[in-house]
Amino acid sequence: MQWQDEGIIIGVKRHGEGSVILELMTKGHGRHLGLVRGGRSPRQQATLQAGNRVDAVWRARIEEQLGTYAVEAVTLNTARFLGVSVALYGLASAAALLRLLPERDPHPGLFEALGVLVDHLDDTSIAPALLVRFELAMLAELGFGLDLGACAATGATAELVYVSPKSGRAVSAAAGAPFHGRLLALPAFLRDDRSYDHPTSAEVVAGFALTGYFLRRHVFMPRGLAWPDARDLFVAQIRD
Amino acid sequence: MASPIGPEIERLIQLLARLPGLGPRSARRAALTLIKKKEQLLVPLAEAARITAERVLVCTSCGNIDTADPCTICCDMRRDPTLLVVVEDVADLWALERAGVINARYHVLGGVISALDGIRPEDLNLDRLVARAAEPGLTEIVLALNATVDGQTTAHYITDLLSPYPVKITRLAHGVPVGGELDYLDEGTLAAAIRQRTTF
Fold first, then answer.
1. Are B85 and B25 contained in the same domain?
2. Which among B147, B153, B159 has CB closest to A89?
3. In whole angstroms, what is the distance from residue B59 CA to residue B82 CA?
């Protein structure tokens, strides 16, 4: 068995004295693990860091095996991230979400979204909004996508300012007014028309509250998984 | 076929094979050498291992391992009391001590934050670090953590954690290693070296 694919490193785990187990989000093979022999050598260490984009060749005798990776650097993003706490927390948060996906299940849309995210993670003016969008994409891929295009009560497509915590559908200002305290806020930058793309930090925090609510309710709590610390640290950083 | 080696020797080989850097073959060679040099090696090694097992302690102040608590480093009055170096592991502390480049006290975290390894902030020796940061006389904390995603994530977390305390937080420089040739360096290291260039 052998294939070649583009991938973004989302995790590296030591294995034995000199090797590492590499966790890649690949374009055509989804989240895929493999062993890199000699991965802890000084020559390979800089490449084998989470956030880097690599060209990977995976080989195994049979498909069920862990297999081995041979990787070549395409874009070394990690060095840019090391001095930026938001970038590191964002990367860890995105990786924690990607680990919710089953292994070897292709998600080309998520791969593209992750690519955009890692390209801009050290740009604190857009990275938070990109991570919120990434979380929305994750919810959709996990089968819990939010419907933010029209009001669940009236069908209106304008003045959408709430999301129903029960249905995950948008609610217009007029229809939601009587239930204001029970609805989640829909920040303008998440509306389907994307007419407003420069959110304030308060709007981004509202975006994280929205995605966080559904991630907890539909994904982390039913699976009994610990909530990722990195996400809370990321939100705390952008709130400051 | 029965093993040509007695169960005691087989057990010795199995235990040696669990040490870092030793596989079953090298463990056999090591065991054979120990047995051949019984008086010079095997007996003193067994005695040293027994005494270490009896006396080894983790320093309640810094997390270092020693046979005394507080450890020898914490008790050393010649060390600069204004400087504290935070390291991931005792191996890093030993590496800095071998280099002899800093005359400071240390704080061993016992790991770094890693989602993949399931290590969370509460698993690290951070409460004691916060307590030490509040001690009078300390002016600088050096975060000597690995230049990896996990190492630097932990460094940022500690920086945020210690922000209420009036101590200067510094970290190790990233850049060209001694003996490093620019042609062979990765772009990330070169970029870090250019960003952190100093006046010559």
1. no
2. B153
3. 19
